[in-house]
Amino acid sequence: MLVDLSSFSPALLATIGAIVLIAVLLSFWAIWHAFWRQFPSQQEKMIWLAVAVFIPFIGGIIYLLFGKNRGRRLES
């Protein structure tokens, strides 16, 4: 069943679009951040990357809350 988008107000559509955009950007940021960090083990790094990739909207939030401070910056 398709939804007629013209029945929604432009403000509501803009709000939903902004929320989706923020969630997607947060997921991309979590993937980028985890990729360039050194975690206590390689398995933990892969788990955080999998969470950010396979749980697109919530995975970025989970990484931000629990995984962000677990890794440290890679030394060049």
Automatic annotation (TrEMBL):
One Pfam family per UniProt: PLDc_N
Subcellular location: Cell membrane
Signal peptide: none
Topology of this chain in the membrane: Multi-pass membrane protein
Key words, A-Z: Cell membrane, Membrane, Transmembrane, Transmembrane helix
Transmembrane segments: 12-35, 47-66
GO-annotated cellular components: plasma membrane
Taxonomic superkingdom: Bacteria
InterPro entries per UniProt: CLS_N
Boundaries of every Cardiolipin synthase N-terminal domain copy: 26-67
Protein name: Phospholipase_D-nuclease N-terminal
Organism of provenance: Desulfobaculum bizertense DSM 18034
